[in-house]
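Data availability excerpt. The first of two example chains:
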Amino acid sequence: MGNTCPVGQFTVFAEEADDCGMNGTTSPTHRRSGRAFHKMRLQAQGRAHNGKKFKESCETVVVNAHGGLLLLKHEIDNGEMLVLTNPETLEEQECRVVFQGEPCDRGQRIGVEFLTPAPHFWGLEFGELSKQGDEASAVH
């Protein structure tokens, strides 16, 4: 999806209803890296809302070089630390929870930010955003 809004305006992305109602999520157009709707299984471990440690297999919804949006079964607090493991490469990344969506049947959408950028963690290459802000050309 190309972005036709000037920098500083907002873009609305639509996704299938099975991603916990991720239709109509508003995001600022100025981003550190391109993002992609990319579903992949990975392992997440950390502390749940109740303070107990957990380890679960989860799924990505949207990813970029600085983090992503995950669908988790456990409820997690903002600011909580997670360790994500890519099952294909066994690479681990520490990240911080920066967004919590509303819980739904499939889990809760959790936005995470890597402590250090990891552009190859997802198995994708993220290019620079074009001068027009066209995010469709950002992922190669």
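And the second chain:
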Amino acid sequence: MSGPPPIAASSTPQGPPDGGSPAGAERRSIVLVRYLDVALVLLAAIPALALGAPALGYAIGAGAWVAQRIIAHADRRWISNSAEPRTQLGLNLFEAFGRIWLLAAAIVVAGVVGGRADGLTAALVIFAAYSVAFAVKVITGPPQRRRAR
């Protein structure tokens, strides 16, 4: 006979009446902080362009930064599926250096296609985004590992 599943007693405190839990709100705020660099790159475009920054250089720098963050997220999921630690280490190194080369190539492309001002703008956008990402990592610490089920 099938019926509704039994209700298990919960030892965690009840969340706000809107259905969200305090732990869920904390996780969302940590995710927002971890992507603060991407948000700042996108939001800083408006005042930077209004103040006369080269649009091509800014677009290339911001696009490369966002692309490398997307690649990093996808690669970390892929690498975590690897069973052997030596393989994970090799893939991590390959992935990290690949993203560095992507950013360096973006700076060079901006400089060649648009000129020195565009290359400098791309470099400054990437430098600022990296600085924010680095500061966030130092402040928040390493990401927590997921528990095996």
